[in-house]
Design goal:
Strand order of the largest sheet: 3-2-6-9-10-5-4
Protein name: Flavin reductase like domain-containing protein
Distance between the termini: 32 Å
Number of strands: 12
GO molecular function: FMN binding; oxidoreductase activity, acting on the CH-NH group of donors, NAD or NADP as acceptor
Shape: globular
Pfam families: Flavin_Reduct
Organism: Enterococcus malodoratus ATCC 43197
InterPro entries: Flavin_Rdtase-like_dom, Flavoredoxin, Split_barrel_FMN-bd
């Protein structure tokens, strides 16, 4: 029997995305966000509050990087979600992490995060449904340690974690439990 819970943002898993931008005087700012993801082959959408420092930086610079945080840097990633760049300007510096300028966009790349998408802003939507940044992915950077022998990203090596909207927890990701477009093949054959 199912129980009604009302309206909540209950999807799982939610990504733990690190949005990195430059502010005034090239100050690095990183924000932890779960309300975003891929919305096309080379497009991302970020649902963000427009009063965030990150939103202002994106408007000013027209670019951002989007990284996957890993378990070894969970503490720093959570810190980026707890502290506002509007209140603590040097929050990135306080994290102890390191950044370099992207070669593709006007945004920083956090060296410690294993996977980074370099994005340019193509559209900002501001309407009754919220504030949304649409970015085009110009390049993907990956640490060699997370690649397999064919040079492809191996999700088991990312040490990524997901956010849970139910209890505000973080959960490790990594165990492969099936193969897309193959695990259901028998059911497809049986349906014909």
């Amino acid at each position: 029997m199912k129980k009604e819970l009302g309206v909540h943002p209950y999807l799982f898993p939610m990504p733990v995305l690190m949005i990195s931008t430059y502010g005034e005087d090239d100050v690095v700012n990183v924000m932890n966000m779960a309300w975003g993801g891929m919305c096309g082959e080379n497009m991302v959408a970020l649902n963000i509050t427009k009063t965030h420092k990150t939103a202002e930086n994106i408007r000013q610079r027209g670019a951002f990087t989007l990284s996957i945080a890993d378990i070894p840097h969970l503490e720093e990633a959570d810190f980026f979600g707890m502290v506002s760049g509007n209140k603590i300007v040097d929050k990135f510096e306080r994290s102890g992490l390191h950044a370099v300028k992207s070669d593709k966009v006007d945004a920083p790349v956090v060296e410690e995060f294993p996977l980074t998408l370099e994005c340019k802003v193509v559209k900002i939507q501001d309407d009754e449904f919220g504030y949304r940044v649409i970015g085009e992915v110009l390049n993907v950077l990956a640490d060699e340690e997370v690649l397999n022998e064919k040079g492809k990203i191996d999700p088991t090596k990312l040490n990524a974690f997901a956010f849970d909207q139910f209890q505000n927890g973080y959960y490790a990701i990594g165990e492969k439990v099936g193969q897309a477009w193959r695990s259901g093949a028998k059911m497809v054959r049986d349906a014909k």
